[in-house]
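Following up on my earlier thread - several people asked me to post the actual chain instead of describing it. Fair enough. Here it is, all 121 residues.
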Amino acid sequence: MRSMCTSHNLGSRFRQQHVRLGVIWLALTLGLGFGLIEGGVASRYGFLLALPLAIGCYSLLAGSFGVCVYNGLFGRRLADHGAEQVPDDALRRRLVRRGMALAGVSCTLAAIGAAVFVISA
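Reply from S.P.:
Thanks for posting it. Predicted structure:
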């Protein structure tokens, strides 16, 4: 029987998918930022960059650290062979805390990035 990993709840295949998704969202954010600058409304609507920036940052961090808050809340792990339940409550809580920390860091980075964009525009 294979032992469970205690530090992440995403397998390597799902980690790669999260990284790809993060790159796509950050590219979308970059395109939106250029569009706002070209339209001359960057200082007024620059705060709209915060949402795609937060999603992109979270996806990159989740892929890098292998922790997804959504799967942690449901007590599941997405291994390469499929989804499985995390039987240990302490491990489940630890994975949720790590995922929430990544979500908090992502929102903070997005807020700072959007603020810098608005201020510099």
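The longest helix spans residues 89-120. That should answer part of your original question.
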